[in-house]
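Usage example:
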Amino acid sequence: MNLLVIFISAALINNFVLQQFLGICPFVGVSKKVDSAFSMGMATTFVMVIAAMVTWLIYNLILVPFNLQILQYVSFILVIASLVQFVEMFIKKVSKPLYDALGIFLPLITTNCAILGLALTAVLKEYNFMQTLIYGVGAGVGFTLALVIMAGIREELELVDVPKSFRGAAITMILAGSLALAFMGFAGIVKG
Amino acid sequence: MNKKTAIQEFIKGLWDENPVLVQLLGLCPTLAVTSSAENGFAMGMAATFVLVCSSFLVSMFRKVIPPQVRIAAFIVIIATFVTIADRFLAAFVPDISKALGPFIPLIIVNCMILGRQEAFASKNSIGRSLLDALGMGLGFTLTLLVLSSIREVLGSGTWFGMQIMWKGFAPWGVMTQAPGAFITLGCLIAGANWINERRKA
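Running the assembly step on the lines above writes:
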């Protein structure tokens, strides 16, 4: 399994949002403007990559040797929650402009199921450290891509007369459906 | 807001504050596991179990948990019950457990469950929290059941695995895949909006 295949498969073919339904809440909530969608995507990618690495280390260096896999869920979610907090403080210290850009989106990421989903699938697929890292980057890029495309469509949608009952979440879901149809077209790119 | 009666506390989750259709919480599992009615139902029951148990514990300890660390405490409680539910499903219904895959552990980050702890169980008595959790869980399960029934009937012509469409019915394969999930849920939300507008008018 080479790394490029993992990357493309995570970003396009098995796009986290449109094919695996992970991270739908921010997808619906923060996809109204292209720039905030992009910031959210970047912040999520950042946390995803770090979380993927840290949870891999914890699972393989602590849980497996001590035969504690049953604590997997509890430990992963605690790690992710504290990681988000830590990343927030770190960015605030190191780069003020970046913090201002990402600021409000960071706490939201803890409850983004894409992060925990990523950590769990990486364990399930038995990726090694490097593969997990690339998988995280790919998933993050795919998440950002879906969010930005969606925000672009929704900016246009402001000018359109949508039937009253469909306004808001309903039309967003239907748009996501059409996007998912389009993303299904990537399915043949690589095998497996 | 005035105090609601016990019955109202229970009923509100079914429609007025339906977690999926009105509050738009817990959408990830809603979309992901509803390709067949059986999976949707199992997911609904698992989430209800976790919700009821964690509401009970959170409500019981609501005066002990310091407010600064409440979110972390809620998450640990939820994660514990999710682990129990996961082991239970894997032991008794391995097929369903396999089909739901990572979406059982993902109940932990289901915003519906954390949302109820934060908004309700941490402020109300045990009895009220249990009623609230039961109502919300039931509302969630029912929505999942409707959504997954539509998708299974149209997408494979079956319901809970039984053949119910006529012979020669060509299944709409797309309904069991990602686009079908999004579009069906979109239509359901729009339908709920439409009914609510009618009721108000």
